[in-house]
Each structure stands twice: as structure tokens, then as C-alpha cells.
Amino acid sequence: MRIRLAVTDDLAALCAIDTIAPSDPKRRADIAGWIEQGCCHLIEIDGEVAAYGVLSRHFFGHAFIEMLMVGASWRRRGLGAALIAHFQSMSSGVKLFSSTNMSNRPMQDLLVKAGFRPSGYIDNLDENDPEIVFYSPLSRS
User: Fold this and answer.
1) How far apart are CA 134 and CA 118, in angstroms?
2) Global pTM?
3) How does DSSP assign 111-128, residue by residue?
4) Taking the CB of residue 71, how many other CB atoms lie within 10 A of it?
5) Could you report the per-residue pLDDT of 59-100, keeping only the tens digit for each?
6) Model confidence at 140: pLDDT above 70
7) DSSP letters spanning the chain
8) What pLDDT band is residue 15 in, cutting at 50, 70 and 90?
């Protein structure tokens, strides 16, 4: 397993493992933008793109895991946890944030297992599915 920054040549592979991108041109454009901004990281296993995550720094001056996607055939193998740990290790602030829909129990469980704590929620982003905000207090030695 290797974690690295995504490059333009990875766009098709990232779109292929994303559950939204095949039917949503905006998601494909978002992925291309994240690559261009240098905030999209991917996990490669034996040369195959298996997962990706996006770490931005626009959430009230804090690092924010904006996206975490594991390809369907690669789920339940610890790749999401590996990306979160990677982002925790590279975050320079004292807090790292992320969010997920209330309906997305697997992501909530993953964040809690990685040491994140609920920090509030936002209504009205997705109809009848509030967004739960999580934060990870980053310990520095």
C-alpha cells in the first residue's frame, strides 16, 4: 500500500472508484480541481488506485477532510482508516475536522474509531439528512 498525491494521470482511475463521478460531471470536475490544487491523496495497491481522500484547509482556518472514498472492491480493508491517519499525521494545526451525513453510519463509525468526536451538525444541506461535523484533537509531542 502506498499513499501519494494524486496527479492528472490519476483522474480516470479516481472517477472509476468514486460512487458519484460516473453519473455526475460536477463530481468529476471537483476531483480534477482537487488534483490541480494538490490536496487529493490516493492509496495505490499493486499499481491500482483503491481509495482517495481530500484534505483542504478552508474550514475556519483548520484542516478539513473534505472527501474520503474507497473503491467498492477495496472496502473493509482499513484503507479509509489509513487515509485518515495520514491526514492526522500531516495536519499542522491542533484540530482536524471532517463531516458526513447522518445516514452514513460507516463513515461516522470510522471517524469515531480514528479518535474524532462529534462537534455539531448542519441542517438543510441534503434534504432530511443532516451533516454531522466531527473534529479530531491532534496531539503534538
Assistant:
1) 4
2) 0.91
3) HHHTT-EEEEEE-SSSTT
4) 20
5) 988 899 999 999 999 999 999 999 999 999 988 777 899 999
6) no
7) -EEEE--GGGHHHHHHH-SSGGG-HHHHHHHHHHHHHT-EEEEEETTEEEEEEEEEEEETTEEEEEEEEE-GGGTTSSHHHHHHHHHHHH--SSEEEEEEETT-HHHHHHHHHTT-EEEEEE-SSSTT-PEEEEEEEPP--
8) very high
* Alpha-carbon span 12 to 32, nearest angstrom: 10
Q: Are 134 and 111 in contact (CB under 8 A)?
A: yes
* Rounded Cα gap, residues 86 and 68, in angstroms: 12
Q: What angle do CA 91, 18, 60 make, to 5 degrees?
A: 30
Sign, CA torsion 33/17/100/96:
negative
